[in-house]
Backbone:
């Protein structure tokens, strides 16, 4: 089975702390993504990566950074946590088929990390 | 960013009823995926539709991709409590170089026994 594993299910951090959210996938997928999920807003893309050491900003990158040193691992970093970053964070990976037009296969998600910043 | 709007946002129905959930955009997508998310879990793929006008069936669930590939619908026949969850549509941009999915805001479905 494809597995995307997020390091923590629940985290409570203080305002101003540096927070690391780790994500590991075991399917050799090129693409990895970090989303945050808030009620009524769906999934919003923070950052994504399609190769080691490559990263692209998503729709809401402010206040976040990422690291992809190895293909299987994609880390999300909150440099200085703030209360408005309290949310559910979801990591996902997918395979990219580099055919004539290119196509992404399904995204496999981790179970999520519910982060509370107090 | 290509936006996807889902409606309704919330839906509560009795077991045995039928329902339809909509996913609309002004943008064209090369493919569209439907996911279901249960509490405390990540979304799980239900289906991918690729061709304009395509209809796919998954037991009691019927998915349709609009002819212009700008919209999609999910129809559930004789809903059961096990269908309860958050239904998300996600579109793949029409440009060949983009790899990220754009997600809709979701439809929270509750099926009451």
Residues:
């Amino acid at each position: 089975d494809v597995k995307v594993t997020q390091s923590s299910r629940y985290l409570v951090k203080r305002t101003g702390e540096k927070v690391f959210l780790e994500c590991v996938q075991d399917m050799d997928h090129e693409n990895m993504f970090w989303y945050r999920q808030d009620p009524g807003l769906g999934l919003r893309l923070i950052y994504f990566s399609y190769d080691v050491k490559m990263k692209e900003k998503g729709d809401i990158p402010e206040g976040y950074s990422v690291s992809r040193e190895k293909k299987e691992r994609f880390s999300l970093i909150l440099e200085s946590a703030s209360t408005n970053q309290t949310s559910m964070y979801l990591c996902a990976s997918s395979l990219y088929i580099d055919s004539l037009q290119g196509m992404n296969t399904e995204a496999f998600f981790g179970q999520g990390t519910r982060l509370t910043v107090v | 960013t290509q936006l996807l709007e889902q409606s309704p946002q919330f839906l509560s129905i009795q077991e045995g009823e039928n329902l339809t959930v909509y996913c609309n955009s002004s943008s064209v997508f090369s493919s569209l995926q439907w996911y279901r998310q249960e509490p405390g879990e990540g979304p799980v793929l239900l289906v991918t539709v690729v061709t304009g006008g395509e209809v796919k069936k998954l037991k009691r669930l019927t998915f349709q991709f609009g002819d212009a590939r700008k919209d999609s619908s999910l129809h559930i026949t004789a809903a059961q409590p096990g269908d309860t969850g958050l239904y998300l549509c996600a579109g793949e941009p029409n440009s060949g170089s983009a790899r990220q999915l754009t997600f809709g805001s979701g439809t929270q479905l509750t099926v009451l026994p």
Observations:
- DSSP finds no helices and 13 strands in chain A.
- Chain A touches chain B at residues 4, 31, 33, 35, 40-45, 48, 50, 56, 58-59, 90, 92, 94, 96, 101-104, 106-112 (CB under 8 Å).
- Residues 15 and 82 of chain A are 5 Å apart (CA to CA).
